[in-house]
Amino acid sequence: MSTKPKTVLIVDDDEGMRDTLTAILKREYRVLRVASGEAALPVLNREDVDLILLDIRLPGISGFEVLRIVKENYSLVEVIMISAINEIETAVQAMKHGAYHYVTKDFDYDQLRSLVRNASERQDLNRQVLTLSAQVADQTGREFIVGASKCTRDIVDLVHKIAKLSATVLILGESGTGKELLARLVHRESGEPEAPFIAVNLAAIPRELVESTLFGHERGSFTGAHRQQLGKFELASNGTLFLDEVGDLRMDLQAKLLRAIQEGEIERVGGTKPIKTEFRLIAATNIDLEKAVKEGRFREDLFYRINVIPIRLPPLRERAEDVPQLAEFFLKRYNARFRKRIQGITDPTMAMLTKYWWPGNIRELENLVERLVAVSDKEFIAEEDLPLEFHFAQLEPVGTTAKSLFEGATNTFERNYILRALEKCGWNVTGTAEYLGIPLSTLKYKMDKLSVRQLARRLRGA
Predict the structure, then answer these.
(1) Residue 397: pLDDT band by 50, 70, 90 thresholds?
(2) Average pLDDT over residues 384-391
(3) Which of these, 61, 115, 200, 301, has the minimum number of CB atoms within 10 Å of its CB?
């Protein structure tokens, strides 16, 4: 992405000095000029100023007063103070007020260029610090795992085709399917992996804070806004902005998002000037946006703007072939984190994991493996280590063949219901029959028919 030149504001009542400074800097910077502090303040409100060369002795409000206003309201702007005389006390006072440097008007041209360049670099570093702190703290191992299923491999093939394009990507999928990890994969494959990746979960931000979080705010724009703050759009400059749960965005903010995409500019809360932005947008949602458009909950024009390259992430139950590789990956991760030496997961246990429904998708699988690794002292994770619901999920026990879908569902319900009743009654068959209000002979018949005895033996050993 192209980098626009930074804007330097020269504030000096001496026209000759303004001309000299402009001639020195105009090749590398966009230069604005004013003759007083009073004239500088409207420019700061109107323009996106990066650096200021500020005369200390000005008519009207002084350079020090302008410096104080700048540092209170535009904290990222770097200021170099200029004076006709060399006074140590003045220089010290300038630095205390937050100036980057202090020079006299008999400066060397090359030294001034170097000084402005260094101030610009410090501003870049400060922006990078803000960007890095806004990114997810724990990046370790956060990668999209390519499993054995064809659908996952097809998704990764598509990512390789579109990653280097600037087109907007819309990732569709249930919660826990790995939408953010897929977005990070797109970012890494874009050819600029060092550029910022800013992730925002819109559903996790209080409604009243969403606007200032996304677009930033000016000092004093609302109660508690004690300083200027950059929004996620600015922090993602020349990188990738990932908006998760975009379907939860309020209608008024949908309009501002549309403007940011179409015009490439945003406006901070309380701001009066547009700010140019350049980023790659990846949006994600777990709701049906087309249905939301028909119901008037999502703007149709915004939907078409973000639905340029849609990628559907199927739930884990539709790609069960991926479960073994994901489970092994999480096992290695939490072995390292908890300093354990669990060698692996037994084949029967892996078969149970593969057969499970996974309503919480990959996130549920990761949480399960984390818990198992944390509490286990054995070499291998076995069937008895799994929670009861994984045993209940075994729909077709050995020796039972369902004659129809309805019969299979009925058998599954009865089997799970009896197992839970047995567990509640301490695995006492007579007590369970009384608890269920059925004859003991009926319960024994059901247990034999549904292979409950074998499952019960395994569960009691768990």
Answers:
(1) very low
(2) 79
(3) 301
pLDDT at residue 392, rounded to an integer: 64
Q: Which CATH number fits domain 150-314: 1.20.120.10, 3.40.50.300, 3.40.710.10, 3.20.20.210?
A: 3.40.50.300
The residue ranges of every structural domain in the chain are 7-126, 150-314, 318-383, 387-462
Residue 282 to residues 97, 154, 165, 182, Cα–Cα distance (Å): 41, 19, 12, 10
pLDDT at 459 over 70: no
> Residue 451: left if φ>0, alpha if ψ -120 to 50, beta else—which one?
left
Token pair in block for residue 309: 């390259």
Strand 78-83 relative to strand 51-55, pairing = parallel
Return the closest-CA partner of residue 243 out of 294, 306, 287.
306
Residues 311-354: tens digit of each pLDDT? 999 999 999 999 999 999 999 999 988 988 899 999 989 988 99
Contacts of 242 (CB under 8 A, 6+ apart): 180, 183, 184, 187, 197, 198, 199, 200, 282, 283, 284
The whole-number pLDDT of residue 102 equals 86
Q: Is the pLDDT of residue 156 over 80?
A: yes
Task: Using alpha carbons, select from 305, 202, 300 the residue that is nearest to residue 263.
Answer: 305
DSSP 112-163: HHHHHHHHHHHHHHHHHHHHHHHS-S--TT------SSHHHHHHHHHHHHHT
| Lookup: tokens for 43 | 């420019």
Nearest to 82 by CA among 9, 175, 168, 6: 9
Which residue has 């045993």 as its token pair?
391
Which helix H or strand E contains 89, and what residues bound it? helix 88-96
Cα–Cα dist 185/34, whole Å: 47
pLDDT interval class at 271 (50, 70, 90): confident
pTM: 0.62
- How far is 95 from 103, CA to CA, in rounded Å? 11
pLDDT (0 to 100) of residue 30: 92
What is the CATH architecture assignment of 387-462?
Orthogonal Bundle (1.10)
Q: Specify the CATH number of the domain 7-126.
A: 3.40.50.2300
Most confidently predicted of 133-147, 169-183, 412-426: 169-183
How far, in Å, CA of 90 to CA of 298, rounded?
57
- Judge whether 318-383 and 387-462 match in fold: no
